[in-house]
Amino acid sequence: DLREPRGHLNFDDVEFAYASGPQILPRFDLDIPAGQTIALVGSTGAGKSTLAKLISRFYDPSHGEVTLDGIDLRTLAPDDLRSAIVMVTQEAYLFSGTVADNIAIGRPEATRAEIVRAAKAVGAHEFIESLPHGYDTDVNKRGGRVSSGQRQLLSFARAFIADPAVLILDEATASLDIPSERAVQAALQTLLADRTAVIIAHRLSTVAIADRVLVMEKGHIVEDGTPDAL
Ligand code: ATP
Ligand code: MG
Description:
230 residues; binds magnesium ion; ABC transporter
């Protein structure tokens, strides 16, 4: 039963290859205790996004299993999986609709008060209020008048309101100005509290706030330690 998932993730003897391609994850083992914040780093093609996609069940392993609180992800009901594990990717930051719609995408039944609370929690409320129609302002896919830092804050508000036990985040590579960077970092720390997080990290500041840094090369974890030690 996964009514209250704690967020303990485990990869046990996992193998994965894309159709008829080489093994991307050969014999992969990894344990992530509930509540831990992982920064995942490594060169391009190392398998970071593939790992993230196995956790969010975008793909299933060809061998071995990925478990959440000891339960094979493949045996979880789709609704349980969707509410327990949320993946925030760079591509999915915004869709056409209002700011409020964009925040509530994972929880369409959310009230306006809940939407505002999520926006406040991640420090997005002020800029939203400054938009022409506030929470009812339309944004297009590219964000229109919303900056890339603000876009990230909106995606954090979306994840905050979904409140998953496990958050997977593929961090944006776009560099931000210093005030935006600070705002995004502060929002991230709020978002990470009380949940398991795996962040494909592109910022040193993100690596610094992680409990544990994993360096991945060619489908293997080659370093595993605290930010200080690495
Ligand atoms: P980056 O830092 O560039 O995002 P990554 O660590 O996320 O890299 P992955 O995207 O997981 O790397 O890719 C791992 C390997 O799998 C690479 O060799 C890549 O070419 C291959 N790969 C990724 N997606 C697919 C796919 N859909 N079909 C076939 N091969 C793929
Ligand atoms: Mg990637």
